[in-house]
Design goal:
- This protein has helices at 4-21, 28-31, 48-53, 80-84, 187-191, 352-355, 362-368, and strands at residues 2-3, 62-75, 92-110, 113-124, 136-137, 140-151, 154-162, 198-208, 213-220, 232-240, 260-270, 273-285, 290-302, 320-331, 336-347, 371-385, 387-401, 408-424.
- The chain has 425 residues and is mainly beta.
- It has a 16-stranded antiparallel barrel.
Length: 425
């Protein structure tokens, strides 16, 4: 634990390092990070092939930082009894915080071998549920991986790495279109002891069919109940119909600098837990003034087991489906991007133990655990993803117990968030 003043002194050193080292040649893993090379997002991000064909052999190092400041107001969630009480006053919780503060380090060890390290400190200055402000900075290791490219068709990635089966869950926080990831995109990851969607393991990645088809498959630590817990396995395929996308971290919006049309899908397995997903992404010119960006995904998850044979995963992840959609239009002259997003989580467990229900309360429990979110936002990109401001309004809809506890009713609350981002890598 270090205090904020000391940490910002470290950041000043990091910025100095960035200026000093920014002339170093890029590596395959490093240059695949969105907005590499002075915030620009090229049509074809650096690929395994470019790394393998490079003649540069001197090890390289590049250091960067990312900061996301949030000013947020969240309307408190209320009970049916509170809403029925005429003397009750509903409040807005307010927060001024650094939502993410990251230090990034990357480079190459050889023409075929690259590395990437990232640390993060989250919610600095946020108000806790007890009303106290978090005034200390606790950094943790978020990414620590090394990649070796054997040929364009196959590379090996080892270490603490981003794992997922949907595009939104595999994006970089620095280049999202919306202000944040989908709320439910890391639902399973949080319960599988991931670190911000990252897991420890070995994965293979490569490009086939004229480098239009990307595959990712790997074994990871996953959720450990004891020393004999099974490994977690994920696999994903992603096909590019237009420009080829080679980045390890997907990009949420290219700001009109690329034309993409992709479809992907994946599987995530550990023990009795199963998940499958399908997604699509498009960024295409629309008229002479800008481009449209859209992303859609559907995921089905199930912790498995039965009421007669409960497994360690049964109570962790109830059977459910998650729908995700976001779409926006980028006005290239004005550098603004209004957008819309919608997410829905539908829990439909049939195993009583998954939701702690009886046969008589199963439908009630499923409903109480389900909900959706709808949002409208606008982005202003001062210097691409390197310097931007984003404003988002969201309505959070949920189910709650009615005054009659045997019934459920709909309720909702609002959230308004302003984000100011600085990204230098």
């Amino acid at each position: 634990m270090i205090r904020s003043k000391s940490f910002f002194s470290i950041l000043s050193v990091v910025c100095a390092l960035h200026v000093t080292l920014s002339q170093s040649p890029s590596s395959s893993l490093l240059s695949s990070h969105p907005d590499f090379n002075r915030f620009q997002v090229p049509n074809v991000l650096a690929s395994n092939a470019s790394a393998a064909s490079s003649t540069e052999s001197t090890p390289t190092l590049k250091v960067g930082i990312m900061s996301q400041f949030w000013a947020q107001g969240v309307q408190e969630q209320t009970s049916a009894a509170q809403d029925a009480d005429p003397s009750f006053t509903r409040h807005w919780n307010r927060n001024l915080m650094l939502r993410r503060l990251r230090v990034l380090v990357g480079g190459s060890l050889s023409p075929q071998t690259s590395y990437f390290f990232e640390s993060d400190a989250v919610s600095i200055g946020a108000i806790d549920s007890d009303g106290k402000k978090n005034v200390k900075v606790a950094m943790f290791v978020q990414d620590a991986q090394i990649q070796h490219v054997f040929r364009p068709e196959i590379s090996l990635v080892a270490g603490l790495q981003l794992v997922g089966i949907t595009r939104n869950g595999l994006q970089s926080a620095a280049s999202l279109m919306a202000l944040n990831f989908g709320t439910y995109q890391y639902y399973a990851a949080e319960r599988l002891d991931n670190i911000a969607g990252r897991d420890l393991g070995l994965s293979l990645r490569g490009f086939l069919l004229d480098e239009r088809l990307e595959y990712r498959t790997g074994l990871y630590s996953g959720k450990n109940f004891n020393q004999y817990s099974p490994y977690r396995w994920t696999t994903r395929l992603n096909y590019n119909f237009k420009d080829r996308e080679k980045g390890f971290f997907y990009t949420g919006t290219f700001l009109g600098k690329s034309e993409l049309l992709t479809v992907g899908g994946g599987l995530d397995l550990q023990g009795s837990y199963r998940a499958a997903a399908i997604d699509g992404f498009a960024e295409l010119p629309a008229g002479s003034i800008g481009s449209v960006t859209a992303s859609i995904a559907y995921t089905h998850l199930d912790g498995g087991g039965t009421d007669q044979a409960i497994t360690p995963m049964t109570r962790l992840i109830p059977k459910q489906s998650i729908f995700f959609l976001e779409a926006g239009y980028f006005f290239k002259e004005w550098k603004i991007q209004p957008y819309f997003k919608y997410e829905k989580q539908t829990v439909d467990a049939t195993v009583l133990a998954q939701v702690g229900a009886t046969s008589g309360t199963l439908a009630l429990r499923n409903s109480l655990l389900s909900g959706d979110r709808v949002g409208f936002g606008i982005n202003f990109f001062l210097q691409g993803h390197g310097a931007s401001a984003k404003l988002l309004y969201e309505r959070v809809n949920r189910h709650r117990a009615a005054l009659d506890p045997t019934r459920v009713e709909s309720a909702g609350n609002s959230e308004v968030t302003l984000q100011i981002q600085y990204f230098c890598f």
